[in-house]
Design goal:
single chain; 434 residues; 19 helices
């Protein structure tokens, strides 16, 4: 029994002539004049899932008809946002602005069409109402002594230094390799690899390219290592073995390619800058957009522009390092690898790590399989295994294998990034410092 008022509430008339004024009033209370669609069974079920109130025509366990408590049912129908607030209260309480609520709602599958059921034109308008209706302690004006002090510029300067440090150490290591000979050359190589790895690790732990996951580090190291040694090893495997001198000794040191690696490490600072520009621009578009489709359409050119800017800088670095070192620039190989690594990092930073991990793993596996098939083709009856790689090497040279593998992977991630990084949920978190 919910009260005497509900006992007096008329039911649906069951006989002719049973309609009266109270019946019309009762039925009018159960509907919403502003949006007649809310009275349909389908929308009742949808709103019931949001507000916790079941459909009006539900039946009890004994088969009898159940009616919701009068005032609560009318409030739920008249205020469907209240149930949504209850479900996402934690999101609304910790949000610093309505934009974070809009991004969080989109991450939970709320679209502009869903927002229309809550009497709002888009998710942004719905988020603004939810943000305004949740009380916060920070809504009270802060006293002057509690006002935050301006952040010192030390951390920003440290971030710039960390971004430039890997390139400087890599350039020093390459210069040492060019000047040293014999055993000191090996020592310089080992020390240089350790120093550059530690500097890159420190730089990737902060700034716009920092991410919590490290699942792609192994495959990234393989791809970079192949850029240094893979072409020489592939050329040796295709030719049947290292060229030897008459006395049986090897003809010179193992062939390495330093241009792509040096250019990639030097491009870390520009990559961080492009990532910061993209993140800041996306946050700005989030404030000015009035719908999810509008936001996606405005962010997609921003993403492609940041990507094109990085590729232009990387092209210049490849040409410059090739001229300084007196080696071929290897533009296709360096550009495809740089594009793959940048897109994988951007997706990982914005919370989409699965696709980059899968693509980087597939690229590393493809390069390993290409080398393995060349050596396996020397076994009796297995010569057919070498045909695809030999055809590609004959047409494009040894760099054709990593260029094709990394190019396909980069194109896949670019298409994926245009879908994922143009969503508001990808920019829900506040911008990282550093």
């Amino acid at each position: 029994m919910s009260g005497l008022g509900e006992l007096d509430r008329p039911e649906t008339p069951r006989s002719p002539g049973a309609w009266d004024e109270r019946s019309r009033t009762s039925l009018a209370d159960g509907t919403d004049g502003a949006d007649g669609a809310l009275g349909t069974p389908e929308t009742d079920t949808a709103l019931g899932a949001q507000t916790g109130v079941g459909p009006r025509d539900g039946a009890g366990r004994d088969g009898s008809r159940k009616s919701p408590s009068g005032a609560a049912a009318r409030r739920s129908a008249a205020d469907p946002v209240k149930g949504l607030l209850h479900r996402h209260r934690a999101l609304c309480e910790r949000a610093v602005d309505p934009l974070e609520i809009a991004a969080g709602l989109e991450a939970h599958g709320v679209t502009d069409r869903t927002a229309a059921r809550f009497r709002h034109r888009d998710v942004f308008s719905l988020a603004e109402e939810m943000y305004a209706r949740v009380p916060r302690d920070r809504d009270t004006p802060a006293s002057p002594e509690d006002a935050p002090t301006p952040r010192p510029r030390g951390p920003r300067t440290a971030g710039v230094v960390l971004a430039l440090l890997p390139g400087a150490l890599c350039a020093a290591a390459v210069a040492g390799l060019r000047l040293a000979e014999g055993r000191p050359r090996l020592i310089v190589a080992v020390v240089g690899i350790l120093a550059v790895s530690l500097a890159l690790g420190a730089a990737l732990r902060r700034g716009p390219l920092s991410a919590a996951t490290r699942t792609t580090s192994t495959w990234t190291c393989w791809l970079v290592g192949y850029a240094v040694l893979g072409d020489g090893l592939l050329r040796t495997a295709v030719s049947g073995g290292p060229d030897g001198l008459p006395d049986g000794t090897a003809d010179g040191p193992w062939p390495v390619s330093l241009v792509p690696v040096l250019a990639l490490v030097l491009s870390y600072a520009p990559a961080a800058g492009c990532a910061r520009l993209f993140a800041a621009g996306a946050r700005g578009r989030l404030r000015s957009s009035r719908g999810l489709a509008d936001f996606s359409a405005s962010v997609r050119p921003l993403l492609l522009g940041a990507f094109a800017l990085y590729m232009g800088v990387l092209t210049g670095l490849l040409v410059l390092t090739g001229a300084v070192l007196g080696e071929p620039a290897d533009l296709p190989q360096g550009l495809s690898l740089g594009a793959l690594l940048l897109l994988a990092r951007l997706l990982t930073v914005h919370g989409h790590a699965y696709a980059p991990t899968l693509v980087l793993t597939a690229a590393a596996a493809a390069e390993a399989v290409a080398l393995a098939t060349l050596f396996a083709g020397r076994l009796p009856g297995c010569g057919f295994l070498t045909v695809p790689v030999e055809v590609l090497v004959t047409a494009c040279g040894p760099a054709g294998v990593p260029t094709t593998v990394c190019g396909v992977g980069a194109l896949t991630l670019l298409v994926h990034a245009c879908r994922r990084l143009t969503r508001a949920s990808a920019h829900a978190t506040t911008e990282r410092t550093g």
